[in-house]
Amino acid sequence: MSALTFSLKKPLQFAINCAALTPDALAKRTFNQIAAIPLYHGKQAVRVDELFDISGHDSASLRFLNATHQLDYLGANLRSGRIDISGDAGAYLGFGMKGGEIHCLGNTQDLAACNMQNGLMVIHGNTGDFLGGAAAGLRKGMLGGTVVVKGHAGDRVGDQMRRGLILIEGNAGDYCASRMLAGTIGVLGKVGAYAGFSMHRGTLLLTTQPDLHPTMQACGSHTLPFLNLLFKSFAPYSQAFASLKTLRAARWLGDAANKGNGEILIIKNF
Q: CATH class for domain 3-267?
C-alpha cells in the first residue's frame, strides 16, 4: 500500500498545529474522516483537506510534501510508524515522541525532539534551539531515543536532557549540553560558548576544543579503548561518527558547581 501523503496546497499565512496527523491518530479513521480533521492556528480551525491534497492509504507511513517551517508539532507524541517530511518542519517536531521514526529532509525550527522518550529522528538539514530540550514549563528534556542532525544545530542542545543519544554532524551553538542530567551528545563540528554549563552527568563528545567556563575541570589526555565500541555503535545512525578512529581524548569533568559528574571528551590527535 502507498503511504498516506499530505501535499501542502499553498504557502501558509500562520503556523498550523499538526499534532493530530500521526500514524497512531489516523490508524482507525476513514479517508473522509481524515480529510475533516480540524487543524488549528490560534483559535481558528481549518479542515485538513483545505490545506493539503491527500492521497495514499497506508496510515502506518505518512508523507508530507511541500512542507514548510509553519507546520508545527509534526509527529507529536508519535508511538509507532514512520513520518517522512519533504521540505522543512516547524517547531516542536516529534514533541513527546515515544516510538517510530521521523525523517525530515529539510530544516526544522526550535525544540525538535523536545521531551522525546524513544524512537529515531533524522534531520537532514539544520535545526534550531533547544534540540532535545524541555518544552516551556517542563523540567525534563529528552528522556530517550536517538536524534541525528546532518547539518547544524542552534543553542541549548540537550538542555535538561536525561537520557538518549544526539549526534550532530555539523556545528552546535552556545550552551550545548546545558543542565544535562544524563545521555550522550556528539558534535563533529564546532560548539559555541559555555558548553556543559550547569551539567550534572552525561557525556559530551567533541572533536574541537571549545571555550569552557572555569568550573569545567581539565583531567588530562587519555587512551580510552571503549571509544572504538562507541563509534561502532553509531554505525546504524551516522557513518560520519562511525568512521571516527582515534582512541585518544582530552577529558574534562564538570560542571563543578553541580558536583562535577558530567564529562566532556575532546577527541583528536595529541
A: mainly beta
Contact 78, 19 (CB under 8 A): no
Q: Give Cα 3 to chain centroid, integer Å.
A: 23
Alpha-carbon span 169 to 205, nearest angstrom: 12
Chain centroid offset of residue 188 CA: 16
Dist. CA 15–CA 91, nearest whole Å: 9
pLDDT tens for 60-112 read 999 999 999 999 999 999 999 999 999 999 999 999 999 999 999 999 999 99
Q: What are the sequence ranges of the domains in the chain?
A: 3-267
pTM beyond 0.90: the answer is yes
Cα 44 to Cα 6, 14, 49, distances in angstroms: 20, 10, 15
Exposure string for 98-121, b = 16+ CB within 10 A, e = fewer: bbbbbbbbbbbbbbbbbbbbbbbb
Instruction: Give the ranges where 97-248 is alpha helix by DSSP (H).
Output: 226-233, 239-242
C-alpha pair distances (Å), 120 with each of 163, 212, 247? 14, 30, 27
pLDDT at 270: 43
Check: CB of residue 254 under 8 Å from CB of residue 217: yes
Quick one: which H or E segment has residue 204? strand 203-206
pLDDT in tens, 31-54: 999 999 999 988 889 999 999 999
Using a pLDDT cut of 70, give the percent of the chain over it: 99
- pLDDT at position 260 is 87
